[in-house]
Write a structure and sequence with these properties.
heterodimer; A: 102 residues; Hypothetical Protein Ychn, Chain: A; five-stranded parallel beta sheet; B: 130 residues; alpha/beta; 5 helices; 5 strands; 36% helix; 20% strand; globular
């Protein structure tokens, strides 16, 4: 049983992303959307936390939300992957359940 | 696959209603079934036809209504959350002696049981909120 976790707020605003990444099980995936995408940016105080999570689970960001905030692939922590809404739907169906960290 | 969507935040607040709409649309276009979109808390504000956003802005209520018409979607608004926020259909208007109603096309007012049912009958429940 694997879980898709969604996080929609910046880790510099809320603690939801830190909590989420601390609760991942092997095989889980995290999809970062909305203002959360800044948490996947490289060079920040939070980047090492994201890097540590990638060893255990897959980390994705929603491409349109990333682009809306002036960022692209080159701005991301190594190993973070980009999906569009189609990919969001595929992640939901691929994993057994979805947990939104609100 | 049979999916359900829960929207807990109103339109034009942050981004949750937009994300929920885009996700629902993408899922339908990929051929998945959306069993129900349930609007709870401030999410019920997606279901008033009295919104008049600027013409060059997206009109989320209209977008939901159009999606509902195209795919025969069930857009359900939580009754208790709706009453607190002034979202009424004709029946609720009469029951409470109000002088108008504002439920948007394609939306219906029902109870929290519909959220539970959506959770049970769908294979996935995807939540959007704040």
């Amino acid at each position: 049983m694997s879980t898709l976790h969604t996080v929609n707020k910046s880790p510099f605003d809320r603690s939801t992303m830190a909590s989420c990444l601390a609760h991942l099980k092997a095989g889980d995936a995290v999809l970062i959307i909305e203002d959360g995408v800044v948490g996947a940016r490289k060079g920040t105080a939070f980047a090492a936390t994201v890097t540590a999570a990638i060893g255990n689970a897959e980390v994705f960001v929603l491409g349109p939300d990333l682009a809306a905030r002036g960022m692209g692939e080159d701005d991301l922590v190594d190993g973070v992957k980009i999906v569009d809404y189609d990919g969001f739907v595929d992640l939901v169906t691929k994993h057994d359940r979805t947990q939104a960290w609100l | 696959m049979k999916l359900a969507v829960l929207v807990n935040e109103g339109p034009y607040t942050h981004q949750a209603s937009d994300s929920a709409y885009q996700f629902t649309k993408a899922a339908l276009e990929k051929g998945h079934e959306i069993f129900r979109v349930f609007f709870y808390h401030d999410g019920v504000n997606n279901g008033t036809r009295f919104t008049v956003p600027p013409q060059d802005d997206r009109n989320l209520q209209v977008l939901w209504s159009e999606l509902a018409a195209k795919y025969n979607l069930d857009l359900t608004v939580c009754i208790a959350a709706a009453q607190r926020r002034g979202i009424l259909d004709e029946g609720e208007m009469k029951r409470h002696g109000k002088d108008g109603n504002n439920i948007a096309p394609g939306f219906r007012i029902s109870g929290l049981g519909q959220l539970i049912e959506a959770g049970i009958k769908s294979e996935r429940l995807v939540t959007f909120g704040d």
